[in-house]
Specification:
Number of helices: 4
Number of strands: 0
Low-confidence stretches: none
Order of helices and strands: HHHH
Radius of gyration: 27 Å
Shape: rod-shaped
Subcellular location: Endoplasmic reticulum membrane
Pfam families: SPC12 (PF06645)
Keywords: Endoplasmic reticulum, Membrane, Transmembrane, Transmembrane helix
Membrane topology: Multi-pass membrane protein
Helix content: 55-70%
Strand content: under 5%
Main location: endoplasmic reticulum
Largest sheet: none
Mean pLDDT: 83
Length: 102
């Protein structure tokens, strides 16, 4: 499940629980049955969990790309696999600092 899928799952969770709670309250109040209200809420919870808990394909619409793995030699040297990982930015800031002192 990607990050957008997690957001969608959370939104669905809240909305479905609120809808089933409202339906359960109205039907239970109209019928005068607390038991019916609880049963509708329990069925709504079960339906919501069935929708939200499994990793359905629509939760994976926005896959994210991981960073490439570091080589063991580069990791030991403190560098990364990209050319701008640390050497270019630290070198340019050091040169800026030496210019400011002059």
């Amino acid at each position: 499940m990607d990050f957008e899928g997690q957001k969608l799952a959370e939104t669905l969770l809240y909305r479905l629980l609120i809808v089933f709670a409202a339906i359960g309250f109205v039907v239970g109040y109209a019928a005068g049955s607390f038991r019916l209200m609880v049963l509708i809420n329990a069925a709504g919870l079960a339906a919501t969990l069935l929708v939200v808990v499994p990793n359905w394909p629509f939760f994976n619409r926005n896959p994210f790309n991981w960073l490439p793995p570091l080589n063991p030699e580069d990791a030991a040297a403190g560098g990364g696999s990209s050319s701008t990982a640390g050497g270019a930015s630290s070198g340019s800031s050091a040169s800026r600092g030496s210019r400011a002192k002059r």
